[in-house]
Amino acid sequence: QVQLHQSGPGLVKPSQTLSLTCAISGDSVSSNSAAWNWIRQSPSRGLEWLGRTYYRSKWYRHYAVSVKSRITINPDTSKNQFSLQLNSVSPEDTAVYYCARTSGYIDQWGQGTQVTVSS
Amino acid sequence: QSVLTQPPSASGTPGQRVTISCSGSSSNIGRDTVNWYQQLPGTAPKLLIHSNNQRPSGVPDRFSGSKSGTSASLAISGLQSEDEADYYCAAWDDSLNGFWVFGGGTKLTVL
Prior knowledge:
The structure holds two protein chains of two kinds.
Chain A: E1 3-7, E2 11-12, E3 18-25, E4 35-42, E5 46-55, E6 59-63, E7 71-76, E8 81-86, E9 95-102, E10 106-109, E11 113-117
Parallel strand pairs in A: 2-11
Antiparallel strand pairs in A: 1-3, 3-8, 4-5, 4-9, 5-6, 7-8, 9-10, 9-11
Chain B: E1 9-12, E2 18-23, E3 34-39, E4 46-49, E5 63-68, E6 71-76, E7 85-93, E8 99-102, E9 106-110
Parallel strand pairs in B: 1-9
Antiparallel strand pairs in B: 2-6, 3-4, 3-7, 5-6, 7-8, 7-9
């Protein structure tokens, strides 16, 4: 059974970088049939897909247009995990952040991390 | 503003059948399959229906899904108090470079 466990700070100052990690058990970040996503949820924006990384003979990364200039999603094969970095955050980035696996559809979610952007 | 449109609320009494709609466009629901998620307060969404009408193992057969054109529906029969939750639809959107889109969620109240 696939499980995703998130870690990272819950408070980030404006203009700084939000960093979260998602540890995978029961699957491999290098799987040829899965993709590894970050999604956030806020009252104002609802559920919003941020981006994904996946391996198909090489690594691919795709990002949402809304955050494309500020986001990086990286796999870490040595630790079987992937990460999210979101630069230059503002209060509008306050949300619950989820990592998630897709294998045709979003079938597994991390537990969620409430991230608040505030000084 | 969510890409997929759901009614903000729905309600029913125990034992009743309720349906929740999800409307999209030709670049998402019209082109790909629809998935449904149940979210209880303070928890992550849980997969309820995938590929329009497929239930993962462990999901009661009281839950069913359907799709027609650019719209989809989730039906819950034999409503139970534990079904009170938020429900979201999701689909892959083929516009731009492709991305996942979601409905705004429907809060189901069991009266």
